[in-house]
């Protein structure tokens, strides 16, 4: 997902519902995050201007709950179960995502579609 000046860039905001997979006592989401207001935004590979301190999806487990739900590497997490995630620390984000008493996590994410053709229309389930 790289930005090329002069090429079309489309940001798509979508709701994704992930049903956690139960493995013994653990509830598995199937993805990892990076970022947060306490992290160095220069290390964020998904921030085009290297100043974004948002929470980003850094890994998605193949065939895991997140991938099945449609989450993609590079998605920016805007909300978790209605909670604003735009100005949180990495640890605050992790705690919101891994609450033990929640079997379902509802995310609002922004996906950046670089070099998208203006003639291609994509539909997303909400």
The percent range for helix content is: 10-25%
- What would you report as the Rg, rounded to the nearest angstrom? 15 Å
**End-to-end Cα distance:** 23 Å
Number of helices: 2
User: What structural class do you assign from the helix and strand content?
Assistant: mainly beta
- Uncertain parts: 115-126
| Shape category | globular
* Counted beta strands: 8
Q: What is the strand content? A: 35-45%
List the secondary-structure elements in sequence, H or E. EEEEEHEEHE
Question: Major β-sheet, in short?
Answer: 6 strands, antiparallel
- Average pLDDT metric: 85
Descriptive tags:
126 residues, mainly beta, six-stranded antiparallel beta sheet, two-stranded antiparallel sheet, disordered C terminus, PDZ
Describe this structure in words.
- The protein has helices spanning 65-69, 90-97, and strands at residues 9-19, 21-23, 26-28, 31-35, 55-60, 76-80, 83-84, 104-114.
- It is mainly β.
- The strands form two sheets. Strands 1, 4, 5, 6, 7 and 8 form a six-stranded antiparallel beta sheet that branches. It has a two-stranded antiparallel ribbon with strand order 2-3.
- The longest helix is centred in the last third of the chain and has 8 residues, at 90-97.
- It is globular and about 50 Å long.
- Mean pLDDT is 85; it is low at 115-126.
